[in-house]
């Protein structure tokens, strides 16, 4: 195993510190009167063989452990997964515009989750993660197949356009089912705009196994992604099967994306904003790009949730509105920078 260079250690250490600061800020924001010192003592007090008194009342402890921390943890998990999935899709497709939203994964997962909600009956909640995964997987495979068949392999941007078409189709079918089951409109609309409002430990437990598997497999292929960046022919000469690697990485990235979308709703642009911002700072090598994108993605979504909670307090904005407000102009910037390559 290669030891990390001092530069890699410095970048990873800095990103970890930023994430720690975002976690602390996310737990403090709100009217419960939680103090930074008290939060730190509460966290330390949960370590084995450690007993400390934070000074928090029973009500403050309930707010911290049953409301604030689950919400912050889920935001971190969702942001990390969307960011590393975006970096993976961009590496697999060799296209800077690829992300779960534009490839139709999020819309396909949304359609699957909506079907589970409106027709799943009593089993609807339990069926949301597998239904979201199935929808996301079908959507990304349709995007890839349509893009390759229409574009003839001449331009990767055709895949993005195919993703837009697949996403539009999935959204149209989703709207049809919502109109046919108007008693669930409010629940589905709330989910579509992205939300961490009702986050709990059960949501974290639901998505964490999928995210761990996805991130672990993607990490195993970090060097392969660097080789594939120079082209399929060159990768094949080095003993890599590009089509097989692409299928594995698309599958695991979709698995993780569909899982987090099933509990957080449609939160767009994280998968395109974070990998690009990180790539501008540290370069394109996936050995560092993937873990730093994961850490920065987690930090970004925690801070976006803080903005969503405070911008119009006491009302709360959907977090998808915040990420779209940041991501849309950033996407136009990326499009402008990439015009010579697409």
What is the compact description of this entry?
The chain has 342 residues and is an all-alpha fold.
Description:
It is a single chain. The chain has 342 residues and is mainly alpha-helical. The mean pLDDT is 82. It is globular and about 65 Å long.
Alpha-beta content class: mainly alpha
Question: Between the first and last Cα atoms, what is the distance in angstroms?
Answer: 37 Å
Q: What is the N-to-C order of secondary-structure elements (H for helix, E for strand)?
A: HHHHHHHHHHHHHH
> How many distinct helices?
14
Feature tags:
342 residues, mainly alpha, 14 helices, globular
List the helices and strands and how they pair.
Layout: H1 6-28, H2 36-45, H3 58-93, H4 105-119, H5 124-151, H6 157-180, H7 185-192, H8 201-220, H9 222-228, H10 232-237, H11 242-264, H12 270-282, H13 286-310, H14 319-337
């Amino acid at each position: 195993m290669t030891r990390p260079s001092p530069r890699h250690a410095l970048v990873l250490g800095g990103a970890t510190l930023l994430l720690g600061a975002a976690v602390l800020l996310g737990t403090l924001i709100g009217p419960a009167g939680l103090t930074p010192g008290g939060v730190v003592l509460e966290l330390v007090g949960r370590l084995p063989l450690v007993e400390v008194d934070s000074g928090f009342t029973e009500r403050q402890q309930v707010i911290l452990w049953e409301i604030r921390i689950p919400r912050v943890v889920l935001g971190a998990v969702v942001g990390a997964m969307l960011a590393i999935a975006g970096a993976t899709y961009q590496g697999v497709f060799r296209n800077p515009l690829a992300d779960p939203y534009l490839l139709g994964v999020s819309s396909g997962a949304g359609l699957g989750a909506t079907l589970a909600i409106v027709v799943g009956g009593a089993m609807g909640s339990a069926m949301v993660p597998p239904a979201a995964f199935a929808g996301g997987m079908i959507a990304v495979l349709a995007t890839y197949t349509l893009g390759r068949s229409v574009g003839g392999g001449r331009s990767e941007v055709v895949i993005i356009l195919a993703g837009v078409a697949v996403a539009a189709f999935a959204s149209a079918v989703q709207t049809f089912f919502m109109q046919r089951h108007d008693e669930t409109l409010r629940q589905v609309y709330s989910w579509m705009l992205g939300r961490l409002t009702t986050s709990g430990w059960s949501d974290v437990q639901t998505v964490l196994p999928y995210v761990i598997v996805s991130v672990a497999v993607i990490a195993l292929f970090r060097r392969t992604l660097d080789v594939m960046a120079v082209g399929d022919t060159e990768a094949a000469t080095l003993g890599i099967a590009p089509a097989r690697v692409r299928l594995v990485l698309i599958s695991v990235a979709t698995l993780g994306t569909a899982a987090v979308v099933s509990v957080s709703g449609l939160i767009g642009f994280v998968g395109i904003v974070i990998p690009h911002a990180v790539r501008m700072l540290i370069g394109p090598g996936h050995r560092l790009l993937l873990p730093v994108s994961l850490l920065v993605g987690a930090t970004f979504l925690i801070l976006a949730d803080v903005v969503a909670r405070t911008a119009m307090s006491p009302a709360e904005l959907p977090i998808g509105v915040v990420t779209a407000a940041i991501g849309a102009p950033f996407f136009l910037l990326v499009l402008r920078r990439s015009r010579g390559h697409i």
